[in-house]
Amino acid sequence: MSTPATPPLSKFRTGGNLVFLSGELPFKEDGGVPEGIEAQTALTIDRIEATLKAQGLGLSDVISVTAYLIDAADFAAFNQVYAQRFQQPYPARTTVRADLMRPGPRLELTAVALAQA
Q1: Closest Cα to residue 25, out of 115, 105, 90?
Q2: pLDDT (tens digit, 0 to 9) for every residue of the chain, 117 residues total?
Q3: Cβ–Cβ < 8 Å for 116, 88
Q4: Percentage of residues in the chain with pLDDT exceeding 90?
Q5: pTM
Q6: How many Cβ atoms from other residues are within 10 Å of residue 84's Cβ?
Q7: Contact predicate 57/113, CB 8 Å
Q8: How large is the greatest C-alpha to C-alpha distance in the chain, in angstroms?
Q9: How far is the C-alpha of 106 from the C-alpha of 110, rounded, in Å?
Q10: How far separated are the first and last CA of the chain, in Å rounded?
Q11: Which helix (H) or strand (E) holds 95?
Q12: Residues 6+ apart with CB under 8 A from 20
């Protein structure tokens, strides 16, 4: 059985004042993936920010992030970029080492944002 090109998922869903984003990967518009964890982290956060912006939200509205890294050696460099993009108080976060379903990306991020009522 082959994996569909577009998986059966929603880019985001809302529940009350919460906005749940599906996992985001560092794919450029042409489908390519930049080299290095720093560039991939920045692009993934850019993609999250664009989804939030379309909902009238920003990175400051993110309250929780789950980070999946394929290599624990990327953790320090990932944290540097992450800390530059998210401001204090930082979102609650879980970071795990995991295999990803697509070859190329070194990380996948999911986020939950709070839409102020």
Answers
A1: 105
A2: 344 467 788 899 999 999 999 999 999 999 999 999 999 999 999 999 999 999 999 999 999 999 999 999 999 999 999 999 999 999 999 999 999 988 899 999 999 999 986
A3: no
A4: 85
A5: 0.92
A6: 12
A7: yes
A8: 44
A9: 14
A10: 44
A11: strand 92-97
A12: 12, 13, 14, 110, 112
What pLDDT does 2 receive?
42
> How buried is 48 (Cβ within 10 angstroms: 0-12 exposed, 13-18 middle, 19+ buried)?
buried
Between the alpha carbon of residue 27 and those of residues 10, 32, 33, 94, 102, the distances in Å are: 17, 6, 5, 22, 11
Domains and CATH numbers, the chain: 12-114 (3.30.1330.40)
Provide the residue type at 63 as one letter.
I
- 110 class by beta-carbon count within 10 Å (0-12 exposed, 13-18 middle, 19+ buried): middle
Distance CA 75, CA 98 (A): 12
* Rg from Cα positions in the chain: 14
- Written as one letter, the residue type at 39 is A
